[in-house]
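Q: Got a minute? One more chain.
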Amino acid sequence: MEMLMIAEKVLFGLAAVAGAYLFVFALFSLAGKPKRYPPARRRRRTVVLVPAYREDAVVGACVDSLLRQDYPKEDYDIVVISDRMTEETDRKLAALPVRLLRPRFEESSKAKALRYAMERLEGENYEIAVVLDADNTVEPGFLRDINAAFDFGLKAVQTHRTAGNRNTDTAVLDAVSEEINNSVFRRGHIALGFSAALSGSGMAFDYGWFRRNVPCLRSAGEDKELELLLLGQRVFVDYLDDTRVYDEKVQEEKVFYGQRRRWLAAQFGSLGAGLRGLPRAILTVNFDYCDKVLQWMMPPRILLLGGTGLMAAVMTLADWTASLKWWGLLLAILFALAFAVPDELVDARFKRALRKAPLLGLMMAANLFRLRGVNRKFIHTAHGPNA
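A: Always. Here it is, folded:
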């Protein structure tokens, strides 16, 4: 019994750290105001990289939105890395003012696609590299806003990735999850002086830095590898809250399961790499790097919420006085999530979609036991309601 009580206290301590982290950054996200950089003094030559693995259904809309930028055509190039798309899709892309690259990898990944693009762009004099997913679309001022931020002296920015669709319960919950990430890991972090987390797309980097560091990317979690490289080199990542990138959200449970499996594998793989650099970060007082490693130690929110609720219920039956701390922690987590979710997403559709949250939580728990090898290969995220 004594060992069980010690285990319960240790478990509560770990959950409390995760809950406090979520609460503090969610609370400060309310104070964060979107940055608006003044118009740029000059236009930087920009390359937009669009890795597209079997993305025939969505890549056209992405390219179309890029062609409608209010940025001079001579100042930016669109490079689509077409991996295993159909001849018809490639033919349509080739007819557009787009540079089409067609690698043939035995085992595909976004990291490989980006490395391949950098090899083919040898000698180009770009100043900014932008990375988008093929299922993203952007507003006309997207490149103009990024250029303004780089004119201010930044070397890395993350734009506001948000849902482009909310047509199923799973898509609604995925959209809410994305906005919680924006509140906690971007807006809240910037408000407290930390770097914003990368989203995997809608990212922009100093081209010279990107070119030098892309060869280091090896896993399916290339955004997390980029974060370690940036923070290890003390490159601050800003967040452009008003610059939107519309991302297609997963619409079915099986697609959600595969996507989260890949994300979890990337997080745990990156955590191992991050821990190796942690002693040096502590010695050199690199708070951004230390925060990132701590962030990757956190359990998925849905498991933290469900696990805390379960422990509160169990402890109520075992020792109601000891359960009070668990109920308090559960309340703090719920408040944190309430702070982080934008008011406009809390509608009848969201309330209806909540009924699916327990199922998605179980899927996340199951994913913890199926991560082996996932971080080294690409898991395609299918699109469409019947994908």
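A: The longest helix spans residues 253-283.
Q: Perfect, thanks.
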